[in-house]
Write a structure and sequence with these properties.
The protein is of the alpha/beta class. 32% of the residues lie in helices and 13% in strands.
């Protein structure tokens, strides 16, 4: 085994576009692992271009895409000189499905390439990309785009990503890949697949690429052990998330109970067995309220390679969150009034979802109830088996009559929110619907949002990613990790 120094800090892959290339680049250049989010990158790139790409970064990265003609086709299709009028809707894009057009595949590959390319540009630091296992249809093409740009790590949670290590192996060899879809109502013998062939993109043999290390995001030693032993290829490490981590949480184990406020109750069974995870012999990082130097040191003493931190980076200058939202949350945190609600039903995935309580956003019941139910992005749709045996797609966040017409239970739609549109609104890319309605934000953070204002200097209203890293490593934790002998997996 060649010992490679592992990062002490992994910057979390948060939301659609929150962990954007600027944040990941800043963290990577500071010597840690910067991570871009791979969620909805195709629509994010398309909308950035429609806003005029004022910095020119999107077009410059597209012109570096290695397959001739792809980048220019995307520019021609979406770029609007000077940006679209403020009240005009963004151009519609087909929702991801098991069979995609050449145009949809190109946009997925190129958009993930662009984000990683920009995050890596001009330095030799580590850059990774994060995906949700629950979002399956776009995954294969998205992985390939990230690999084309040289992503060093792939991180994936919100599900059981057994197939992904083997997919990375084959994509690195330039080979076609396929992945079995989770399909509601499927019989035991049914097999529904999605596939991607790099050769189709290249119009011939695809080149070999470097295979990124794969870090599975888990919440239990049971899942970590199963993946280490039964995944389709090499697992190179784990991120072990506790329930206080932001975004989607694993559901509590055992019988589901709620607090008086309606939040899931987590207990001792929901704490990962770190001794068992250490016994797997792979590097691991701890996540969930670890953004304190003392907790970084604690993680290192428990045998971890370091920690993953999300919320602290979400509100820094370089994150993709809209500046006004960041400022409002920081003021609430400074006043001791910032809070998240772990909503057991908000996300169409069925996973508990941490929502920041913020006036004028979908966290408010009145705002949620006024919104017309629309499912026009479709990333969190579920695949289901139709009566004729073919594959269909439905989302508990879509219009109730549509969901029921597709065989869904109306009870599953209650309290469901359109996470897709809300997350895009968080980063200033919210849709203007045909009714003239502007999509509202839906902020998600970890419990640490209550104290995120601690990174602000007296009199300051913003802080940087570098400030977060300096704070976390102030007790010499970086040196401690380097001396610990923890190595990357071979």
């Amino acid at each position: 085994m060649v010992c490679e120094k592992l990062p002490v800090i992994i910057q979390g892959g948060m939301g659609a576009g929150v962990s954007g290339w600027e944040l990941a680049r800043s963290v990577s250049m500071a010597g840690q692992l910067g991570v871009v989010s791979g969620t909805a990158m195709d629509v994010i790139l398309a909308r950035r271009l429609q806003l005029g790409d004022p910095s020119g970064h999107m077009r410059r990265a597209l012109r570096s895409f290695p397959v001739a003609g792809v980048g220019q086709r995307i520019i021609d299709r979406y770029f609007v000189e000077g940006g679209k009028p403020e009240g005009k809707e963004f151009k519609a894009k087909a929702a991801p499905s098991e069979k995609m057009t050449r145009q949809a595949e190109e946009l997925l590959v190129a958009s993930n390439f662009v984000e990683v390319f920009l995050a890596k540009e001009g330095h030799e630091g580590l850059v990774g990309i994060n995906f949700l296992e629950k979002i399956q249809a776009p995954t294969l093409a998205s992985l390939y785009g990230a690999m084309l740009a040289g992503a060093r790590y792939v991180l994936m949670g919100a599900g059981i990503p057994r197939a992904i290590p083997g997919v990375l192996d084959r994509l690195a060899q330039g080979l076609g890949v396929e992945m079995r879809l989770d399909v509601q109502g499927a019989d035991r013998g049914d097999v529904f697949m999605t596939s991607f062939d790099p050769g189709r993109l290249w119009g011939g043999a695809a080149p070999e690429l470097a295979r990124p290390d794969f870090l599975a995001i888990v919440s239990s030693s049971t899942l970590a052990t199963m993946l280490a032993r039964r995944a389709s290829g090499a697992i190179n490490g784990f991120v072990v998330e506790e329930p206080s981590a932001g975004g989607h949480n694993a559901p509590p184990r055992g019988r589901a109970t709620l607090t008086a406020e309606g939040e899931p109750v987590y207990g001792d069974r929901d704490r990962a067995d770190l001794e068992a995870i250490r016994g797997l012999g792979l590097p691991f990082w701890l996540a969930g309220s670890y953004a304190e130097p003392e907790r970084v040191g604690e993680a290192l003493r428990m045998g971890a390679a370091g920690v993953q931190v999300g919320t602290a980076f979400a509100y820094c200058e370089e994150s993709g969150l809209e500046a006004g939202l960041k400022g409002r949350v920081l003021e609430l945190s400074r006043a001791g009034a910032a809070r998240v609600f772990t909503d057991p039903v908000a996300s169409p995935t069925g996973f508990p979802f941490k929502v920041v309580e913020l006036e004028g956003t979908l966290s408010e019941a009145s705002v949620y109830e006024q919104r017309e139910r629309i499912c026009d992005l479709g990333y969190l749709r579920h695949a289901y088996k139709k009566a004729d045996g073919t594959l269909g797609w439905r989302c508990p966040g879509e219009p109730v009559d549509d969901y029921v017409h597709k065989g869904g239970d109306a009870a599953e739609t209650r309290g469901r929110k359109c996470v897709c549109n809300g997350l895009l609104a968080n980063i200033g890319l919210g849709q203007v619907q045909r009714s003239g309605e502007h999509e509202m934000a839906l902020l998600t953070s970890g419990d640490d949002v209550a104290h995120v204002a601690r990174f602000l200097e007296p009199g300051a209203s913003t802080y940087s990613a570098g400030d977060v890293i300096a704070y976390l490593l102030q007790d010499g934790n970086g040196e401690a990790c380097a001396e610990s002998g923890v190595c990357a997996a071979p």
